[in-house]
């Protein structure tokens, strides 16, 4: 996919969402459509946007920075948008019922749940993770918890493996904190059991990107996990680098450098025939959701910082 096509798609999204919408939100929405291989439909998006405004209370996170991201998911859903919104609220309520505080993160997690019944397993995994990282585990982890808690395997083992991956990577030049925790979580996607080769692939991919002069920041750690569990080979990584170079040279990403690597990986995966064949397509879709969870979580974090800065300056 040429960078020019991405810029054109972003232009359509940005114009439709309006000047009051943060440009990073417009970029996130653009990537959701492009990674699904779908063209942006301004009329359909506007219709769903209005539906959300009509149905949701004024204080709902769905009317704030998550608004257009959720609208995009509902437009692209397999069911009518109104049914999708009802399902989302039911999932979000189920998370509240198991003692997750209502927030943008529970709504984001709700998008990724097939049914409200998944909330109990999510709570169990969250609590298990908290025994290993009581101060690090927070609301930002909820989307990952939802996606991983219903994978096959023992929940306690998965939490222990996350902690082991975290400890394994820490001495290898990975900085401690939320980003490394997200990486350790994504590494358990394929199996709850510790797999030394997965840790080895993460390190090798990090080193490969660095050798290509691509700066791997903390925000990019989960991307390494996605590539590792997808077993990206040299050819796939070369395709990611090629896409990275195209996006890096684009005016669109000039002010949003941290988006370039995740976007390059998303678009490369979307174009991979191998990942779209048979069961791999389900795997690719799940990994894509993990990536979007991470990007949205980062964006929510930045929005909170901006809001705090504005409040302190007023």
Write a structural description:
This is DUF4003 domain-containing protein. With 314 residues, the chain is mainly alpha-helical. The protein has a domain at 151-314. The chain contains 16 helices and no strands. The protein is globular and about 50 Å long. The N and C termini lie far apart (44 Å).
Low-confidence stretches: 305-314
Order of helices and strands: HHHHHHHHHHHHHHHH
**What is the subunit arrangement here?**
single chain
Largest sheet: none
Distance between the termini: 44 Å
Pfam family, one: DUF4003
InterPro entries: DUF4003 (IPR025062)
Protein name: DUF4003 domain-containing protein
Structure in a nutshell:
This protein has 314 residues and is an all-alpha fold. The protein contains 16 helices and no strands.
Keywords:
single chain, 314 residues, 68% helix, disordered C terminus
């Amino acid at each position: 996919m040429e960078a020019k096509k991405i810029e054109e798609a972003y232009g359509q999204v940005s114009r439709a969402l309006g000047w009051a919408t943060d440009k990073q939100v417009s970029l996130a929405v653009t990537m959701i459509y492009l990674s699904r291989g779908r063209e942006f439909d301004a009329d359909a998006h506007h219709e769903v946007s209005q539906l959300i405004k009509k149905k949701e209370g004024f204080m709902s996170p769905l009317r704030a920075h998550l608004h257009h991201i959720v609208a995009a998911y509902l437009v692209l859903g397999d069911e009518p948008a109104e049914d999708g919104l009802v399902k989302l609220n039911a999932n979000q309520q189920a998370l509240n019922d198991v003692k997750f505080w209502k927030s943008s993160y529970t709504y984001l997690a709700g998008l990724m749940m097939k049914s409200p019944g998944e909330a109990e397993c999510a709570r169990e995994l969250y609590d298990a993770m908290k025994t290993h990282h009581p101060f690090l585990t927070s609301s930002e982890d909820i989307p990952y918890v939802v996606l991983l808690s219903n994978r096959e395997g023992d929940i306690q083992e998965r939490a222990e493996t996350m902690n082991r991956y975290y400890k394994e990577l820490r001495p290898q030049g990975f900085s401690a904190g939320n980003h490394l925790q997200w990486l350790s979580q994504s590494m358990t996607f394929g199996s709850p059991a510790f797999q030394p080769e997965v840790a080895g692939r993460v390190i090798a991919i990090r080193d490969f990107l660095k050798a290509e002069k691509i700066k791997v920041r903390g925000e990019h750690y989960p991307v390494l996990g996605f590539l590792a569990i997808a077993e990206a080979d040299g050819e796939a990584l070369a395709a990611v680098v090629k896409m990275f170079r195209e996006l890096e040279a684009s005016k669109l990403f000039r002010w949003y450098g941290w988006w370039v690597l995740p976007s390059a990986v998303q678009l490369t995966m979307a174009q991979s025939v191998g990942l779209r064949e048979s069961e791999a397509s389900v795997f690719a879709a799940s990994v894509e959701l993990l990536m979007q969870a991470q990007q949205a979580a980062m964006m929510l974090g930045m929005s909170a910082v901006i809001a705090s800065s504005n409040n302190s300056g007023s």
